[in-house]
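Weekly sync notes, structure subgroup
Attendees: PM, AL, DS (notes)

Item 1: joint prediction request from the bench team. They want all four components modeled as one assembly rather than separately. Inputs as received:
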Amino acid sequence: MGRKLNKNKIINDPVLGFISLPYESLYDLLQHPYIQRLTRIKQLGLSLLVYPGNTHTRFIHSLGAMHLTAEALRQLKDKGNDITDEEAEATLQAILLHDIGHGPFSHALENIIVEKLQHEEITLIMMNKINKEYGGMLDLAIKIFKNEYHKKYFHQLISSQLDMDRLDYLIRDSFFSGVREGSIGAERIIKMLNVKDDKLVIEAKGIYSAENFLIARRLMYWQVYLHKTTVSAEHMLKSILIRAKELSLSGKKLYASTALQYFISNRISGETFRNSQEALEKFSFLDDSDVISARKEWSQCDDKILSYLCKSLINRRLFKVKTGETENEFDAFCDEIKKKYKALGYSDDEIEYLYSCGEVKSRTYDPSNDKIQIIEKDGNTTEISDASDLLNTNTVTRKTSKYYLCYAQVFEENIEAN
Amino acid sequence: MGRKLNKNKIINDPVLGFISLPYESLYDLLQHPYIQRLTRIKQLGLSLLVYPGNTHTRFIHSLGAMHLTAEALRQLKDKGNDITDEEAEATLQAILLHDIGHGPFSHALENIIVEKLQHEEITLIMMNKINKEYGGMLDLAIKIFKNEYHKKYFHQLISSQLDMDRLDYLIRDSFFSGVREGSIGAERIIKMLNVKDDKLVIEAKGIYSAENFLIARRLMYWQVYLHKTTVSAEHMLKSILIRAKELSLSGKKLYASTALQYFISNRISGETFRNSQEALEKFSFLDDSDVISARKEWSQCDDKILSYLCKSLINRRLFKVKTGETENEFDAFCDEIKKKYKALGYSDDEIEYLYSCGEVKSRTYDPSNDKIQIIEKDGNTTEISDASDLLNTNTVTRKTSKYYLCYAQVFEENIEAN
Amino acid sequence: MGRKLNKNKIINDPVLGFISLPYESLYDLLQHPYIQRLTRIKQLGLSLLVYPGNTHTRFIHSLGAMHLTAEALRQLKDKGNDITDEEAEATLQAILLHDIGHGPFSHALENIIVEKLQHEEITLIMMNKINKEYGGMLDLAIKIFKNEYHKKYFHQLISSQLDMDRLDYLIRDSFFSGVREGSIGAERIIKMLNVKDDKLVIEAKGIYSAENFLIARRLMYWQVYLHKTTVSAEHMLKSILIRAKELSLSGKKLYASTALQYFISNRISGETFRNSQEALEKFSFLDDSDVISARKEWSQCDDKILSYLCKSLINRRLFKVKTGETENEFDAFCDEIKKKYKALGYSDDEIEYLYSCGEVKSRTYDPSNDKIQIIEKDGNTTEISDASDLLNTNTVTRKTSKYYLCYAQVFEENIEAN
Amino acid sequence: MGRKLNKNKIINDPVLGFISLPYESLYDLLQHPYIQRLTRIKQLGLSLLVYPGNTHTRFIHSLGAMHLTAEALRQLKDKGNDITDEEAEATLQAILLHDIGHGPFSHALENIIVEKLQHEEITLIMMNKINKEYGGMLDLAIKIFKNEYHKKYFHQLISSQLDMDRLDYLIRDSFFSGVREGSIGAERIIKMLNVKDDKLVIEAKGIYSAENFLIARRLMYWQVYLHKTTVSAEHMLKSILIRAKELSLSGKKLYASTALQYFISNRISGETFRNSQEALEKFSFLDDSDVISARKEWSQCDDKILSYLCKSLINRRLFKVKTGETENEFDAFCDEIKKKYKALGYSDDEIEYLYSCGEVKSRTYDPSNDKIQIIEKDGNTTEISDASDLLNTNTVTRKTSKYYLCYAQVFEENIEAN
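Output from the run, pasted for the record:
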C-alpha cells in the first residue's frame, strides 16, 4: 500500500470541488489565528440582506483563490515556463494571505475602524508579523506580494486586472448569490494563460473568455455589489460606527467587546497602526460578530440616533434609496427631507445621520492600469482593449457612476426587491 | 401593460432558484424581528470548521422549506385535492416560522441556554407572540403546527419523516458543504406526493426517490452532521457555555452581551421561559454573534479552563477524537488521560472539561414513528419499509450508534481531514 | 386521494428540470411523426466533433423552448395581462412546432436539400398539414406564428431578438457543450418581461440581464457555433451533398435511403416543395441518420472526390482552416493550393471541392430589426441600445465578419483544439 | 514565453470539465476510425424515448472514463504507489478503448447482430487489430485489459465492481437524463482509493461514498436503464432486427447499408467473427445510423409484421408494458392476447413478434464476484458487505428481478410517463 506522503489536506469547496494544500507551510498558515479569523468575516458583508445566500467568508474565498493560483501555476509550468518550487510555494502563501488585513464587514467599514489605511497595507503588516513568528518563511511571498520580485507574473496572479483573486470572487459570489449569469469559465481562462517577458499574457483564442470575464464582472457590480439596497444598508452601518465613535470619543460609555471598544474610543490612524503592537493585536481580534453583537446592544442605548439606526438595520427597515444619473439631481429633494426631519425635532447634527447622497462607480476595465495583454500565435502582444472589438470603446474603459440618495423612512414602509 | 398585483417578492436562492412569496402575510412575517434574527443564526453551527462552505443561515433554509411546501401544495391541488387559500397560506406561514425557536448554534447549545426546553416549543411560544401582535393572523398556522387540524397532511408537510423541512435541509446542506452525493431529487419526490384519508402518501413509482432520500440523509448524517471534528468542536462549545454559566452563577463577572449575560447568570428553565416575558425578550435578542464575540473575550479571562477552551476553539486547536463501536472501549484510555492531566496540575473538576466520552446516533427511518406510506395504483397503501426491499431490514430502521472520545491535546498537533 | 386530472405529462430535462405539458393538445402534437422526427435531428449538427457533448436534439430544444414560453406566459398573466387559455395554448403549440421544418444537420444543409427554401417556410407548410389532420386545431397557432395576430407579443415570444427560442438554445447549447460562460439567467429575464401596447418590453432593472444575454450569445457564436473546426466540417458535409447531387443528377446511381435518393436525384426547389405532396412526404422521412449512413457508403464509391470527402469526414481528417480579417487575404495562398492540387492530378472541377473561402458573421444585436424595448418605472420605453451604455456602440450592433479558408490536407496531420 | 510541449489536447466535457490527453498515443487512438465510430453510437440507445437528454455517445463516455482513470492513477501515485509511465499510459489506452466493441444500440442488439459474442470480446479483437497497425503499441494495454498483468489494480480500474467505467457512466447518465439523485461523488471515491497487495482498496472513511455509489447505481437501474418504456422499445428493436434477419435469410431482399446487409443476410457467429477479416471490417462500419435509417425504409416494406414494428417504433407507438413480481403472473393475460391477435388474423409465427414476456434484473453488489475491499487505518481489509451495515444484507447482494409483459397495442393509445 502506498504510504501517505503527509497530512491529509483536502477541503471540500462547494464551488471548486476538492481543494488540496500542496505544501506543508500552507497547512501551517491555515491554522494561524490571522487566517482562522477570516472564517468570521463575511466576503460580502450586508449583501445577505438582498441575496440571503451570500454568507460565505473571506476564508473560503482565500482558499479558492489559492486553488486557482495552484492551477494556473501548473498550467504555466506545463507550457514550459521555469517555475521553482520555492516560487510556487511563495505565490500560494501570498494569495492565501492576501485578505488577512480585512476588518469586520470588509470594505464597508474600511477607513472607519482604522482611519486612512487600506486593507492591503494591513495585510502586509500582518504578513510581516507572521513572517517573524516563522523565522522568515514568508520572505519571498512578501517580495511577490509587494511586486518586488523580478518575475512580475507571480504578483500579477495575485493582484492585477485578471488575477486569481478576481476570478475566484466572481465565480464564488455568483454561486452564493444565485446570480448564475455572473458565472465565468475560470478553468478556460487559466488554460489560456502564458508568460511573455516575465508578464502574464492571454493566448489570442482566449479573448472571448477574457471579454466574458470583464462583462460578468460589470454585471456583478451593478446587480450584486452595488445593489442599491446593499448600498443603503452599508451606509447605515457606516453611520452607526461613526456615531458610536463620535459618542465614545466625547466620553460616552458604550457597550463593546474589548477590541471594538479600542477602535471606537480611540482615533486610530494609519500612522498609529503601523507603529503600535496594541492596535495590531486588537485589530486581529475583531470580526463581524463584534459589530453585530454591539449593534444589538446599541439599539437599546439612549442616544436616539444610534439606537434608531441600529434598530432599523437589525430589523431590516432600511433607508429608502433613490438612484440617479447626475450628481445634483437630488438637491431639491434633499432640502425637502431636511426640512421634514427638522420639523420632527432633529438637530442639524443628527440630521446628517438620517440621509446621505453619494456616488457608486465601477469601471469594467482600466487600460491605464496594469494592462491585460493578448498574445497572438506569432508572439506579438496587444492590449486587450485594442484586440477586442467589444472592449474597444470608452464605455467599457471609462468609469461609470450612479448617484444615490438614501434616507431614513420614518413613516413609509420599506419595500424590497432584487 | 399589466399592472403589478402587489409587492415584488422574489428572492434569489442559489439552491432552489427564485423564491416567491405567494401571500402578503408571508412578506410581513419575513420582516418580523423574530425571523430576521435567523439571518444571524447559522444552520449548521460549527460545521464550517470542517466544511467551510457551511455558512448558510436558518433564514435561507426557512425560505427554501417554504418554497418546497408551496410547490407541494400546488402539486396536491393539481391532483384534485381540495385545498383552500386559507389552508395553503397557513401552511406556508407555519413552515416559514418553524425554526424561529432556534437559539445560537442551534442544536449544539439546545438545553444549555434554556434548560430542558426543545426549540419546537420555543417556536410555538414565539408564534403565539406574533399571533397576538397580528390579531390572530396565525390561528390556523398554529393549529396546523400543533397537528390539531383535521387534514393531517398539512402538518406532515411541515413535520414528518419526509417533510419539506428535511427535503430542504438535505439539498441545502449538501449544496453548501459540497458533498454532492447527498443531493436528492426533491422535485421528483414532490411530484410523487398525494393525499389519502387526509394523510400524505407517495405514489408507488416514487419509491426509488424515497429510498434515495433516506439513504442520502444517512450519508449526510455520518459525513457531515456527525463528522467527528464537528462533534469535537461542538463539545468544546458546550463546555465553554457550561463553564461560563458555572462561573457566572457562582458570582464571577464575565463579559457578555446583555442577552447572553441573562442566560449565563440565571438558570432559565422551560418553566421560567414559558412564564417570563423577559426570558422571551432576551432570547429573541440572542444570535450566533453574542457567543462568538464572548468566546473571544473569555479567551482572555483568568479562568484557565474557560480561557483554554475558548482559545483552542477560536484558533482551531480542537480536541482530538477517537471513534469506536462499543460504549466502553475508551475506558482504559480515559483513565490514562485523566492521570496525565492530573500530573499537569488540573483538578478533578477541571479535568471534566478536558475530555468527553459520548455517543452519536442516527436512524435512517423509524417505522414506529410517523410512517411513510406508499400508495399503489389500486389505491392500497403500504408502509415504505414493507414496500421497499432495500429498507426492509432492521439496518435501516434501527438506530446506529457510534461512540467517541474527545480530549484536549495539550502538546499534540491537531490534524484534520474530512 | 386527489384524482389525476389527466395523462401524466412530465418529462425530465437535464437543463430545465421537469417539463409539463399544460394542455392535452400539446401531448398529441408530441406524438406526431413530424415532431418525433426531431428526436433524430441534432440541434448542432457536426459541432460534436469539437464539443462531444453536443448531441442534443431539436426535439429536446423544442420542449425546452415551450417550457420557457409557458413560464413567460404565466409571468405575464401574473402581472395582470389578459391572456386567454386559447391564446396560451396556441402560443405553446406554435413554439413546440417552430423547428419541425428543419432537415438533417439543420442549417448546414439548408438550401442544399431543398433549394432556396428556408426552414421557417417548411415549418409553416408542415404546420398547415398537421392543422388539416386535426381539423383546424392549429388555426390560432399558425396565425401567431405568421405574426398575423393583433397581440404581437405572442409572436415575439416565439420569434424576436429576445425570444424563448433563443433563450432556450443559449442555455442548452452552453450546457451540453460545457461552455459554462455562455450560461444566462433565463429565469431572471422572464421575470422582467411585461407587455406594453401589445408588445413585449423588459423592465428597466432587467437591463443587465438583457445585456448579458446579448453578450453571452456573442460568445457562443464565436466559441461554439462558428468554431473554425465546425465550420470546416460543415463545409465538407455541404460539399459531399453537392457532389452526390451532381453525380446523381448526371445519372450516376448512388446508395441512399429512398427519401434521400429523392432529393439528390431531383432538383427540388421551393416552388416544387410548396406544391408537391411527394416532396413533403419524403422530406418528413429524412433525418440525420440518412446522411450519416449514406456518407459511409459513399466513402467506398468510385468517385474519388466523393469518397475522399466522405472518408475524411467520417474519420475526422478535417480540412485545415485559416481564419482572417479581410476578404482577400487568402488569394495568394489559394493560388498556391490550386497549383499543388493540379500537380497531384486533380481537374479544375474537382479542385473546387478541395478548398473553400468564405465568410462567417454574427451580429450581437440588430436595432434595425425587431427592437428590444426597455420600460422605465414611469412607463416610458427606450430601445435597448439607447438605454444601455454597453450596447450603445456600433460594435455590438454592426455585423462582425471573419473570413476563412479551408482546404483538404492530403499529407498533413490535422491537429485539433477547442 | 513557455513553449507548448505538444499538441493542444483539451476537450470540453459538460460533465467533468476539461479533459486532457496526457500521452501522445492517446491522441492518436482518438483519431482512429474504431473510436471515432463511437461518436455515432449512443450510450443508452433508445432511452431517449423516455429521457430525451440521453443522446450522449459511447465516445464521450470513453473520454470521461479515461479522465477519471487518469485522476485515480495520479491519486495512487501521490500516495506513494510505484506506477511507471508505461503502466499509466497502457491503463489509459485500455480504458479509452474499452467500449470499441459495442455495436449499434449497444446492449439492445448484442448477440443479435453478431451471435453469441459479447462486446468485450469484440473489443479485444479490435484492440489486437489496432495493435498490429501500430506495431505493438498496445501490448501492455491488452495485457491489462485481459487481466494478465501482475499488478491487478490496473485491470480493476478498468473493470471491477467499482471501476472508472461505472463511475463515469453513473455520473454521466445521471447528468444527461436529468435524474439528479443518481449523482455520486466520484472525486471523493477516487481520493479514497489505495492499493494493497496489488489490488485496489478503499480507505475506511470512504465507506459512505462507496455505499452511496452502490445505492445510486441501484436507483439508476430501476429508474433509467430498466425503465419499462425503454425495455418495451428495446424489445421492439430486437424484434425488428430478428424479423429482418429472418426475412433476409429466407431470401427476401431488404434495404440496408452494405454493412448492415452483411449481418442480416448472414448468420455471423462468434466463431466466424473471430476468423473473418470481412466480418470485422463490416462491423467496424456499423453504427446507430444504419439501423435508424433502415428502420424507416422497412416501415414501408410489404412484410406486415416488420413494417408494423418499424412504424410503431419510429412514431413512438410503443408496446404496452405490464410489470410484475412473479414469473408466471401474466400467463392468463398472454393467452387472452394471443387469442385476440389470432382473431385479427395473425399467424402463430407472427404473433410471436407482437408480445413478449421477460425478466429484467439488477444486483446492487455481488460479493461472490470481484470484491470491493475496505482498508482500515491498521492496514487490515474487510469486504465491503461485511464492513457496511447497510450492505450487510442479502437485499443488496442478491439479484432483484422484475417480470414484464409487453404487447402491441393495435387500438389502444400509448400513454407515457417517467
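Discussion: Chain C touches chain A at residues 179-181, 183-185, 188, 208-209, 211-213, 215-216, 218-219, 222-223, 389-390, 392-393, 395-396, 400, 417 (CB under 8 Å).
Action: AL to compare against the crosslinking data before next sync.
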